[in-house]
């Protein structure tokens, strides 16, 4: 592990399987510790193709999954069974094996407007054991994380460190469908915060994000350049 002055702790691995095994072990240790201390744990995960191997390894890990609540970091506003839905990925790839016993609370995506879906999602998430014990973020090649997209219509609202909101809607040219996302302060409250990236292209994006300070151009900087919470960056080629 290497650490920068900004609190970014870098964990580089030779291959993606080794990364998945190491990150899954870290997540499981955090969740097991929370269960031992408080009787329950909360895990927020991201969608996309990157976490598929991680989800497989994590689902095979033996912890008290019946004491764990799983939620998503963000979601597309689309039908739950759509191939674009992050919740479908979680149900098919993570909530299997030992992890089938976990409680999953999905974003609401079936109401008329993004704002209505955001409000209802926040109500559903009220039962989660906050703050999160673990939050695992991804990153796009445009420098977005969660649904904090460059040019997002609610980006300032989502990144507001003093916001009392847990969920906001997001529309952006690069987002495709309208989205729902947890807000920055909710993510920074996590007891263990990880950024999971793979491949040389995303490593270059990550290095660029570290080297600049325009958060609106690359919103992942809001996570990488804050001083409240250490961010563990897991990378493999």
Question: Would you kindly provide a written description of the structure presented here, covering whatever features stand out?
Answer:
There is one protein chain. This protein has one domain (about 1-235): Rossmann fold (3-Layer(aba) Sandwich). The longest helix is centred in the first third of the chain and has 23 residues, at about 15-40. The model has no long low-confidence stretch (mean pLDDT about 95). The protein is an alpha/beta fold. The protein contains 8 helices and 11 strands. Strands 1-2-11-10-7-3-4-6 form an 8-stranded mixed β-sheet, with helices on both faces. A 3-stranded antiparallel β-sheet has the order 5-9-8. The radius of gyration is 16 Å and the shape is globular.
Binned, the helix content reads: 25-40%
Taken from the alpha-carbon principal axes, the silhouette is: globular
Q: Give the strand line-up of the largest sheet.
A: 1-2-11-10-7-3-4-6
Give the ordered list of helices and strands.
EEHEHEEHEHEHEEHEHHE
Question: What class would the helix/strand composition place it in?
Answer: alpha/beta
Tell me about the largest β-sheet: 8 strands, mixed
CATH class: Alpha Beta
The whole-number mean of residue pLDDT values reads 96
Q: Would you identify the regions where 5 or more consecutive residues have pLDDT less than 50?
A: none
Domain count: the total is 1
Number of helices: 8
Task: List the main descriptive attributes of the protein structure presented here.
single chain; about 240 residues; alpha/beta; Rossmann fold; 8-stranded mixed beta sheet; 3-stranded antiparallel beta sheet; 11 strands; about 20% strand; globular
